[in-house]
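Per your request, structure below.
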């Protein structure tokens, strides 16, 4: 079982990793990778390498907002929002 010992974070459908914690991020991504079908893993590794390179370049240009990387979408549920 993957667990961040600092925050007791373990990947699950309801838990979120603590923003900025490398151990939480490691547990999240290792779990994500493990759940990827074997035939898709090489593609996923390429995607992660490209994303990492883009983050490094954005940081070099001073355009990286680290907290925005960890922000979660805002969800609002409205009653009776669907037509009858």
């Amino acid at each position: 079982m993957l667990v961040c010992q600092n925050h007791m974070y373990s990947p699950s459908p309801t838990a979120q990793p603590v923003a900025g914690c490398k151990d939480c991020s490691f547990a999240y991504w290792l779990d994500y990778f493990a759940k990827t079908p074997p035939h898709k893993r090489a593609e996923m590794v390429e995607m992660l390498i490209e994303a990492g390179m883009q983050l490094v370049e954005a940081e070099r240009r001073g355009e990286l907002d680290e907290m925005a990387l960890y922000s979660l979408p805002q969800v609002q549920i409205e009653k009776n929002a669907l037509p009858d």
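Helices lie at 22-34, 41-60, 66-70.

Regards,
D.
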